[in-house]
Specification:
InterPro entries: Glyco_trans_2-like, Glycosyltransferase_2, Nucleotide-diphossugar_trans. It contains eight helices and seven strands, in the order βαβαβαβαβαβααβα. It is an alpha/beta fold. It starts with a strand and ends in a 15-residue tail after the last helix.
Length: about 250
Amino acid sequence: MRTLLTIPVYNEEGQLGHVLERSLPYAEDILVVDDGSTDGTLDILKDFPSVKLHQHAQNRGYGAALRSAFAYGCEHGYDVVVTMDSDGQHEPDLIPRLVKASKDADIVSGSRYLATFDEDTPAPKDRRRINLLITDQLNACLGLQLTDTFCGFKAYTRSALEKLHLTEDGYSMPLELWVQAACHKLTIVEVAVPRVYLDPSRSFGETLDDSDARMEYYQRTLDRAIAVARRRVGCGLELRPRLQEANR
């Protein structure tokens, strides 16, 4: 299968070179989507002439960078598009495993909670709490069996991507993705990947470093995605009442 590895990047001059060096043995074609970096990220790419580059003139957000990656992969006829974060938390040697699993699935999603690895690091408590709550909610209202909503290490078939109509620019884009995947009855498989937090204090930007604000932002995106799905494809999803931390 013709595969494209895509890496969304925003101000990652400290990690990008290392990530690309480790990825090259496992990916014949690599696309970096630079989301308006203002540091030396683009200078790093000069040392990797085989790596393709798509640039956003301004910072638009994680979801917008992934949409550009998906569009590139579809337009250039790749069978599978793999997404991997640029901060060094994903293991490139697992790329072949995700690609192999995509032979029998529309979306293959890494999960940091399916198995235990020697290199695992503790998840920040607020991130783990929010991931649990949102994952429970998605599973309840969409009939999924996810264990990790937000892992950015994924493989998508082109046929799956061509069914999606994603609009969310920010970090909540995966919620819109899961809603549409469920509506289109896409086959989803999770693959265990290590849980590595090199910088647990990494900022989400603006107000989203506040966990309550971030949870509300995710909830709004989920509510909106389900409302849009009902109108567009009539899949009849029912959103269960919001889960509260006290109920866990």
